[in-house]
Design a protein that fits this description.
about 90 residues; mainly alpha; Aspartate Aminotransferase, domain 1; three-stranded antiparallel sheet; 3 helices
Length: about 90
C-alpha cells in the first residue's frame, strides 16, 4: 500500500484480510476505466476499473497484490509515469 500511496493522485487504505486493494484515484479526475486501460496499454499492468463493481466504484481501481515483492515493485515503477502524466486536480 505504501507504494501505491506514493503514486501521484492515488490513496490506498490497507485491506483487511484480502489480497486485493481498491485504491482511490479520484484526484486524477479521470474515469477509472480510462485509467485502467492506460495502465494496461502503457505500463503492462492489468487492473480492473472500480466501475466493474457498480457505479459507486467510479474513482477507484481494483488490483491484486498476490505476487512477489519484486513483481509488485516493478509494476509500481511502470505505473508511476502513467499517473504522473494524468496529473491531479
Amino acid at each position: 500500500m505504501e507504494g501505491l500511496n506514493r503514486l501521484p493522485g492515488v490513496t490506498c487504505a490497507r485491506p483487511r484480510g484480502a489480497f486485493y486493494v481498491f485504491p482511490n484515484i479520484k484526484a486524477t479526475a479521470r474515469p477509472s476505466a480510462d485509467v485502467a486501460e492506460r495502465l494496461l496499454n502503457e505500463a503492462g499492468v492489468a487492473v480492473l476499473a472500480g466501475t466493474a463493481f457498480g457505479a459507486h466504484g467510479e474513482g477507484y481501481l481494483r488490483l491484486s497484490y498476490a505476487n512477489s515483492e519484486t513483481n509488485l515493485r516493478s509494476a509500481l515503477d511502470r505505473m508511476r509515469p502513467v499517473f504522473e502524466s494524468l496529473g491531479t486536480k
